[in-house]
Amino acid sequence: MSVQYTPVIWNRNKIFYDAVLLIAVALYLYIYIRVAPGYEDVTKPIDGAILRMRAFGSCAFLMLTVILCIGPLARLDRRFLPLLYNRRHFGVMTAGIAAVHANYVLTWYYNFSPTDKYVALLSSNTNYGQVLGFPFETLGIAALLILFVLAATSHDFWLSFLGAPIWKALHMFIYAAYACVVLHVALGALQGAGDPIFTSVVAASVVLVSGLHFATGRMEARRDRGEETAKASLQEKGWLVAGELDEIDDDCAKVVTLSDDERVAIFKYDGKLSAITNACAHQNGPLGEGKVLWGCITCPWHGYQYNLSDGRAPAPFTEKISTYKLKLIGSTILLDPNALPPGTHVDPVEIGEAA
Amino acid sequence: MSWRQTKDAPFYVGYLNAVPKQLVMFLVVFSVCFAGGLGIAALALSSTQNDPGNGGFQWGNRFENVGVLELRPYPVLRVPADGETPARTYMLAGQGKRGAFSQAEKNQDGPVTLRGVPVNRGDLTMIQVGRVEAVEGNAPDFTPAGPVPLGRWKLTGEICDGKCYAGAMRPGRGLAHKACADLCLTGGIPPVFVSSGPVENRNFFLMADQDGNLIGDEIKPLLALYVELEGDVERLDDLMVFKVDLAKARILK
Amino acid sequence: MQSAALLLELGRWYLMAGGVVAAAFLVFGIDRVEPSARGSYAFRPLLIPGICLIWPLVLYRWFTLEKHGEDAR
Fold first, then answer.
1. A28, B44: Cβ pair inside 8 Å?
2. Percentage of residues in chain A with pLDDT exceeding 70?
């Protein structure tokens, strides 16, 4: 997007986002490590290192849970979209917190021994055939490595350099990381003497994350099957009926589905109609759920913009997306389902009298 | 909720500093719930952690005793009876995750003065050995008593490393601690069996293999799990020794 | 124990190779394949950890972009 890359592009909303995040995490750690031990029912205090290991580990787990909920929540209710905007900072911070947890484990359980701690980490328990007593640390290492890779490749440079498909595929590994973390906890901490609260927190996290993804998946599927699927026009051969004019608000769009992975957004603005692909070039954000601002389509996810007539990002940006041809018969909008090459100019359809 | 964007719906663009009014309230409420939720979770998770018990280093109660070092098969210090106090046997460990084999092997010839720090949990005492010096001159004549056999037993419980479980780490048992226990045993710290049922009112047993020798790596898959073990129990003064037939060990859960 | 030490040694070599790739890419490659990076230097150190971790992928993309230009994006 940017003409020139900078380490981090800051703006007021990001600063606010990060501030809330930092305050929440600091509060969690402070209460866990400083306040709550006063309420613990223990004969002698738990080791400081073990307390902090648990504080940072559980904090990273909860953060990862929230991160994975943001996506489906924003699909289910657009008011959650602001959480998506700066999610990468959330992810980077989670990787950092998880690293602190790992460091406490290394410098406590694996320390004070004649064996090198990294060698000990990999070699002390190798009973991979056991379920109980499985070296759950390995699962934690795998998750941490994934978090490191994702955090290290979160800059926009990587999206552009690797290309969207590879970048997206790489970042889907967040789900693998979550699965590893859940197993890491289930085979490790949860096997200790019964701790009903921690067990319920982990169970709630799994139910929440999978439930929200399931609900969103069903909504998307329903949407693809529903009224928004374009039907072939009876009068005009090769064209699809995309809907009626009055279905679309000014400066907004209607999204029609062509096939499973192809959706088109038809925008109405200034008494005109234009159609472009629904997928943003940045991260496949749903452009049709965005709005027209200053004459440009604006993606609801990160605010990437495109000209309506040719699908090109306004200079100096260089992104391009596919455009489609439209025509209007009475108040019925017809769509040519053949996508034009990204950046192709299409004259907008004037609404005129029909509106 | 409708997918369709409408003219009146608030629209958030991250890089525009102005956030739509309808969203500001929502986001403030969400932020407070998020931070508050994490705070409550921290309180709930941290304040309900299991009690690691009263084990710990007795820094204020340094250990200094004259006795005889033996390998049974792990290093122990046999201390003679003294007036009212009966003879005692202490398990020994080195600094960190190291055993006390080298000190024990060097000083087998006669009585020694052993200084260290006790790590203690109830009946279980492990001495972290500081300094060992041979007693010069007229050493007291002392022959430690032999082991008293207490028969064959089948016991359930957990195999721990004797030092962490005694309180060098709190908590020092369970699967989260398994790797540490593994390293401790590799380093030469004696394995201790924590039985769920007592034998002569004792729940802690120094472990040995069925012939009374050191236990090898075959113990590792059993560490930190709830297991059933079978073997002969002996008493060395006040220390119980469990000579286990590991081939018959069963993991219960 | 031996395989653990071997694994760590491999990891060390992997990261060291990543360091070499990072140096080469940030000094020569990035300007050739990423127009937006031309003239901006402050963000480059930020890329080092990423390159060290996924350097085989970086090399693959570098060669693809050199060979096919913008079409490969």
1. no
2. 96
Cβ neighbours of C41 in A, within 8 Å: none
| A172 shares its domain with A33 | yes
Tell me the residue type at B119.
Answer: V
A67 vs A79, more confident: A67
Q: Which residues of C touch A (CB under 8 A)?
A: 1, 3-5, 7-8, 33-34, 36-40, 42-43, 46-47, 49-50, 53-54, 57-58, 61, 65, 72-73
Task: Please give the tally of structural domains in chain C.
Answer: 1
Residue A205 sits in the same domain as residue A300: no
Q: Which chains touch B (3 or more CB pairs under 8 A)?
A: A
Is residue A2 in some structural domain?
A: no
Q: Is the pLDDT of residue C18 over 90?
A: yes
SS (H, E, C) chain B: CCCCCCCCCCCCCCCCCCCCHHHHHHHHHHHHHHHHHHHHHHHHHHHCCCCCCCCEECCCCCEEEEEEEEECCCEEEEECCECCECCEEEEEECCCCCCCHHHHHHCCCCCEEEEEEEEEECCEEEEEEEEEEECCCCCCCCCCCCCEEEEEEEEEEEEEEHHHHHHHCCCCCCHHHHHHHHHHHHHCCCEEEEEEEEECCEEEEEEEECCCCCCCHHHHHHCCCEEEEEEEEEEECCEEEEEECHHHCEECC
pTM score = 0.92
In a domain, A1, yes or no: no
Q: Is residue A3 part of a domain?
A: no
Query: What band does B139 get if pLDDT is binned at 50, 70 and 90?
Result: low
Residues A174 and A211 in one domain: yes
The better pLDDT of the pair A339, B166 is held by B166
**Domain residue limits at A309:** 231-354
Q: Is residue A6 part of a domain?
A: no
Average pLDDT (C19-46) is 91
Fold of B56-134: OB fold (Dihydrolipoamide Acetyltransferase, E2P) (2.40.50)
Report ipTM for this prediction. 0.95
Residues of chain B with CATH 2.40.50: 56-134
